[in-house]
Amino acid sequence: MLPRLLPFLLYLATLTSCTAQQDKSPTAENSPYTFKTASQNGTGKYYLGREISYVMGHLAADWLERPEREREENVSQAIENMGIQADERIADIGAGSGYYTFRMARKASEGKVFAVDIQPEMLDLMQQRIEREGIENVELVRGSETSPQLAANSVDLVTMVDVYHELSHPRETMQNIVSALRPGGRFVLLEYRAEDPTVPIKRLHKMSEAQAVREMKAVGLRLRENVGNLPWQHFMVFVKE
């Protein structure tokens, strides 16, 4: 397992040019962020004790679509865990190549999936598939570093799959996500388990349940459940407090 992942892990260790710009300005008095010397794969920017990692750029899109991903991560089970209803409006934040987006769109056949990404190259990849397959219930959204650019009270479900740990402005982004959730809506967070040393992913690309709960509490979300049926990832469902 690990040898197959080594090229990708090396890519993450050296990635700089395709990274979203990180705010290196001095810490403001009311800022939730602090700055220290960056560790390997890290930005040197900290949020509630966690160093924010660099972003995986569009050049790694093929890794997102790797054939073994279903077997390694049990993506089908993760989507079943979401309990998607046919008429739901869903936002896939950091959609990347659309690996989850298009699978969720099949479940939400009478609804819509907003595929949000800040990288135009990823949006272009998804647009090509939309046109090639005639997909009608996926809408592409160019997000920013601080907002997914979703209207208030517009979505029933927001998902982030192995993306949250890379957000350069997690506080602002999550505040906007909470605003976008409809009453009774849910935020589903998938992150590689930091508690499990056997998961073959770099440390900064993992999160613990405790850290996730701490960061979500800061924006008014509470953990409803952590479904423990995936090989490598936490599947955490958050709702408004």
Automatic annotation (TrEMBL):
Gene3D superfamilies noted in UniProt: Vaccinia Virus protein VP39 (3.40.50.150)
Swiss-Prot/TrEMBL keywords: Methyltransferase, Signal, Transferase
Name of a matching Pfam family: Methyltransf_31
Keyword Methyltransferase on entry: yes
GO MF, one example: methyltransferase activity
Residues spanning the signal sequence: 1-20
Domain Methyltransferase: start-end pairs: 86-209
Biological processes per GO annotation: methylation
InterPro entries: Methyltranfer_dom, Methyltransf_Superfamily, SAM-dependent_MTases_sf
Protein name: FkbM family methyltransferase
Organism of this sequence: Neolewinella antarctica
